[in-house]
From TrEMBL:
Belongs to the tannase family. PANTHER family: CARBOXYLIC ESTER HYDROLASE (PTHR33938:SF13), FERULOYL ESTERASE B-RELATED (PTHR33938). Transmembrane segments: none annotated. Keywords: Calcium, Disulfide bond, Hydrolase, Metal-binding, Serine esterase, Signal. InterPro entries: AB_hydrolase_fold, Tannase/feruloyl_esterase. This is Carboxylic ester hydrolase. GO terms for molecular function: feruloyl esterase activity; metal ion binding. Gene3D superfamilies: alpha/beta hydrolase (3.40.50.1820). Its EC number is 3.1.1.-.
Length: 521
């Protein structure tokens, strides 16, 4: 309750789930804590600055006896006078479940707002990459750790977090919330599907729902290049992407740098129109290059999405204009020598999944897969790991019954996880649960990249709206965001629960005002 009770004895009768056994407990008062936290890392809450905060840091490690694992959960508890009665768990990102800078930033914001807040490393330690734990021996995957990451550690975290709260404050949280993006979004959706009682409210950003497709997707543009045996310069990809954004921007009636009518753009914009044009290109010898057909093929295939080797469409694609070259990481990045010879440079996330978990071989070279090999990898991934980590079950009946509310949100120019996958999931849920909108709503965010970044801001009111939905039954009908238009001006926009979209009322007269926009089908 106070710093004086922030001692191990306060937690001496902590009850852990019967499947676990405590290894160690550390209880440390933290004082004079200050931070500036960006809304980027809080996903659905505003930026916050604070200083001189005190809280109790309860960190414990436990094992699932017989599994030889060591899972660490870190909980920050504000003093009673500052506690808002709630628990907010922060999700992971990339290959990490928690206990790294992303959830730590989110936890700083949460504890400053008065939440008890929590993160779990799922037993993976501090490692940023799966290669440090994926294989127990050559050919043998560490299935227990994969299972911890996929689901089990999430259930433990919720149960233990509520107990830690109870020991400190004398009562369990009034409501518990999940807040995550990407891997953290997937964790949120897993919780709704498999542990429907764990959280009352779940905010799942850019969720990696269809895990095998997510992993495959990070390599798709590279497989297209391998197919044609050509590796275009990044500048070519960027030139076509920018041209597509500019050409398709106005299709929705408002020219603001963001493509809203994505299918219209796919139907009308021809990525091959720039082939043969000379552009400036810092990567190319002489600083200039003629745009190749290969570059257009890569974009065409990336926008249309994964297809099998025989051409059969297999998965959703990325929005034209998404940044596939990124800032050192992107799906279509190539690595070029000074004399202009390029090769593919696939994102490690997906390559590691194929190499370590599907091929189960740390020396397997998954960087230049043929299309047939790639198809095999995706198929095998689904067969072997479906129950471990995929979160595509559309039946959320138990979550609805438990009274849970979930919000998912996804930027339309997400350059890593195509936002249409979350649309697909929402549609799948709607198909089996026609009342989906009464407990689960999905928001597409035009102009937002993966979790944060791009011309659109994060939906910084959404978490509070989720709370109002859970605690007061106030349904989140729309939510404000800010859009930076090409002139640099910041304009107000709203985001809407899918399948509604924000529609501009031209009679209203100012597209920069939120009140000139309304949600409509
Ligand atoms: C508290 O932290 C600030 C910097 O954040 C530092 O300047 C100050 O000396 C600290 N106060 C105490 C009492 O440690
Ligand atoms: C937060 O930002 C302010 C203003 O830039 C700065 O003075 C302060 O040192 C920052 N605090 C921390 C903990 O970084
Ligand atoms: C910081 O917080 C402590 C504990 O609440 C308090 O005693 C102290 O006066 C605060 N310091 C400042 C500079 O506000
Ligand atoms: C909380 O305690 C754990 C374990 O001692 C430590 O690793 C972590 O850095 C602490 N966090 C803070 C914010 O003090
Ligand atoms: C478990 O992991 C934590 C954090 O990585 C570490 O501090 C602790 O020593 C480990 N415990 C055992 C028994 O290995
Ligand atoms: C990758 O393999 C394809 C044939 O499948 C070949 O055309 C291409 O040159 C290879 N790329 C590299 C960088 O080895
Ligand atoms: C797209 O590229 C074409 C071909 O160079 C050019 O004619 C057109 O003006 C470009 N569109 C925009 C909006 O920049
Ligand atoms: C673009 O991709 C689509 C889907 O794979 C394909 O049907 C179409 O033929 C491609 N266009 C060109 C010009 O290659
Ligand atoms: C590009 O390739 C070179 C030579 O194989 C390699 O040393 C370098 O690390 C690569 N750069 C990147 C960014 O992958
Ligand atoms: C792992 O991959 C390497 C390189 O492709 C190959 O030489 C080796 O035989 C593979 N090992 C196993 C156990 O499959
Ligand atoms: C619930 O409604 C009450 C009364 O209007 C209000 O004070 C409170 O802030 C609401 N709670 C949330 C989480 O919005």
């Amino acid at each position: 309750m106070s710093l004086a009770t922030c001692v191990p004895q306060t937690f001496s009768s902590l009850i852990l789930p019967p499947s676990t056994s405590l290894l160690s407990l550390s209880v440390l008062p933290v004082t004079n804590f200050s931070a500036n936290v960006s809304s980027f890392y809080r996903y659905t809450q505003p930026s916050i600055s604070f200083s001189n905060l005190s809280f109790c840091n309860v960190t414990l490690s436990y094992t699932h006896p017989g599994q030889n694992d060591n899972v660490t959960i870190e909980t920050w508890l504000p003093l009673s006078t500052h506690w808002n009665g709630l628990l907010q768990a922060l999700g992971g990102g990339g290959w990490q479940s928690g206990r790294f800078y992303l959830p730590y930033e989110g936890m700083k914001g949460a504890v400053a707002d008065g939440y008890a807040t929590i993160t779990t490393d799922a037993g993976l330690g501090y490692s940023e990459r799966s290669r440090d734990w994926a294989l127990v021996s050559p050919g043998n995957v560490n299935l227990y750790l994969l299972q911890n990451l996929g689901s089990v550690a999430l259930a433990d975290e919720a149960a233990i977090g509520k107990e830690v709260v109870k020991e400190f404050y004398g009562k369990k949280p009034d409501y518990s919330y999940w807040n995550g993006c990407s891997q953290g979004g997937r964790q949120g959706v897993m919780l709704a599907q498999r542990y429907p009682e764990a959280y009352d409210g779940i905010s799942a950003g850019a969720p990696a729902i269809y895990w095998s497709e997510v992993m495959a997707g990070t390599d798709w543009s590279q497989v297209v290049m391998n197919d044609i045996g050509e590796y275009p310069f990044g500048c070519e990809i960027t030139a076509i992407s920018l041209n597509a954004t500019r050409e398709c921007d106005g299709l929705d009636g408002v020219t603001d740098g963001v493509v809203i009518n994505i299918d219209g753009c796919l139907g009308s914009y021809d990525p091959f129109r720039l082939v043969g044009e000379e552009i400036d290109c810092p990567q190319a010898p002489g600083g200039k290059v003629k745009i190749t057909e290969a570059a257009a093929v890569v974009l065409n295939q990336t926008w249309h999405g994964r297809a099998l080797a025989d051409g059969t469409p297999a998965w959703v694609g990325w929005t034209p204009g998404s940044d596939l070259i990124g800032n050192g990481s992107g799906l279509a990045i190539t690595n070029c020598t000074v004399d202009g010879k390029c090769k593919g440079d696939p994102v490690e996330l997906g390559v590691d999944w194929f190499r370590l978990f599907v091929a189960r071989n740390a020396s397997f070279d998954a960087t230049n897969l043929t299309h047939e090999e790639y198809d095999w990898f995706v198929r095998t991934s689904k067969q072997v790991y479906g129950g471990f980590i995929e979160t595509d079950d559309p039946d959320l009946g138990d979550f609805r019954k438990a009274g849970g509310k979930m919000i998912s949100w996804h930027g339309t120019v997400d350059q890593i996880l195509p936002h249409k996958a979350t649309e697909k999931y929402y549609n799948a849920v709607s198909a089996v649960m026609p009342d989906v909108g009464s407990f689960y709503r999905h928001y597409q965010i035009p102009g937002l990249e993966h979790c944060f970044g791009g011309p659109a801001s994060n939906p910084t009111s959404l978490f509070q709206q989720l709370r109002a939905w859970v605690e007061n039954g106030t349904v989140p009908e729309s939510s404000p965001i800010e859009l930076t238009v090409p002139s640099g001006e910041k304009q107000d926009r709203i985001i809407c629960p899918f399948p509604q979209k924000a529609k501009y009322d031209s009679a209203c007269g100012d597209e920069g005002l939120a009140e000139c926009w309304a949600c409509a089908l």
